Amino acid sequence: MPDSVITEQLAINKDRLSRHMKQLSEYGRLGETGVCRPTLSPVEKEAFGKVAEWMEEAGMTVRLDNFGNLIGRKDGKDPDAPVVMTGSHIDSQPAGGRFDGTVGVLSSIEAVHTMSEKGIIPDRPIEVVSFCDEEGWRFGKGLFGSRGITGNLEAGELDRKDADGITRRQALREFGCDPDKIPESRFSPESIHSFLELHIEQGPLLEKADQPAGIVTGIAGPIWLTVKVKGFAGHAGTVPMAMRQDALVGASEMIVAFHEIVKEDPEGTTVGTVGELNVSGASRNVIPEEVAFTIDLRDIDLDRRNRCEELLRESFQRIAEKYHLKVDITEDQNTKPSYCSPWIQDIIDSESQALGLNAPTMMSGAFHDALVMSSLCDYGMIFVRCREGISHNPKEYASDDDLAVGAELLYRTLLRLAGDS
Question: Which residues bind Zn(2+) 2 (predicted)?
Answer without folding.
Answer: 100, 135, 392
